[in-house]
Amino acid sequence: MINIYKKSSLGDLLLVFRRNIIENIKKEGFKHDMTFSQMEVFRFVGLSGKETMKDIARYLKITPPSSTEIITEMEKRGLVKRQNDKKDRRVIFVELTSKAKKLFVLLSKHKDIILEKMIAKLNEKDRKNLERIIRILITE
């Protein structure tokens, strides 16, 4: 069998790396099937505690109606709840439900363990370089 990754672009490799992390998280017991966008919302809102619908759309780089669809589906599954701003009813906040907050903590621990296993294959110098390079790439 040909190793397709030898011919893959860096962008493709980064996507495969991310997919491997998600697949390993599922193997470790995370059984909640979420789309890529739902996972991103879950992480984004989980890290901050509360976000506006507008900020979620901006973060995902999608239109507000598209973010509404994602949030509606997550709300049906009991993962998020919406709350109107008391000062401006046009502003809607989204936060994780208490069930989802527990799940977020569990998922974060699993993710950290999985990443540690993957990164353990690197020597100290390569780990530091990887971290340095990722920080450069994600800085806007």
Protein architecture, described:
The chain has helices at residues 10-27, 36-48, 53-60, 64-76, 98-119, 124-138, and strands at residues 51-52, 80-84, 92-96. The protein is mainly α and 140 residues long. The chain has one domain (4-138): Winged helix-like DNA-binding domain superfamily/Winged helix DNA-binding domain (Arc Repressor Mutant, subunit A, Orthogonal Bundle), CATH 1.10.10. It has a three-stranded antiparallel sheet. A hairpin with a 7-residue loop joins strand 2 (80-84) and strand 3. Helix 1 (10-27) packs across helix 5 and helix 3 (53-60) packs across helix 4. The N and C termini lie far apart (39 Å). The model has no long low-confidence stretch (mean pLDDT 85).
SSE topology sketch:
Elements: H1 10-27, H2 36-48, E1 51-52, H3 53-60, H4 64-76, E2 80-84, E3 92-96, H5 98-119, H6 124-138
Antiparallel strand pairs: 1-3, 2-3
Helix pairs in contact: 1-5, 3-4
Main beta-sheet annotation: 3 strands, antiparallel
> What's the order of the H and E elements?
HHEHHEEHH
CATH architecture: Orthogonal Bundle
Number of strands: 3
The CATH superfamily bears the name Winged helix-like DNA-binding domain superfamily/Winged helix DNA-binding domain
Approximately how much beta-strand content do the residues carry?
5-15%
Q: What would you call the structural class? A: mainly alpha
> Regarding quaternary structure, how should these chains be classified?
single chain
Uncertain ranges: none
Mean pLDDT: 85
The proportion of residues forming helix, as a percent range, comes to: 55-70%
Top CATH class: Mainly Alpha
Enumerate how many helices there are, as a single number.
6
| CATH topology type | Arc Repressor Mutant, subunit A
Tell me the distance between the termini. 39 Å
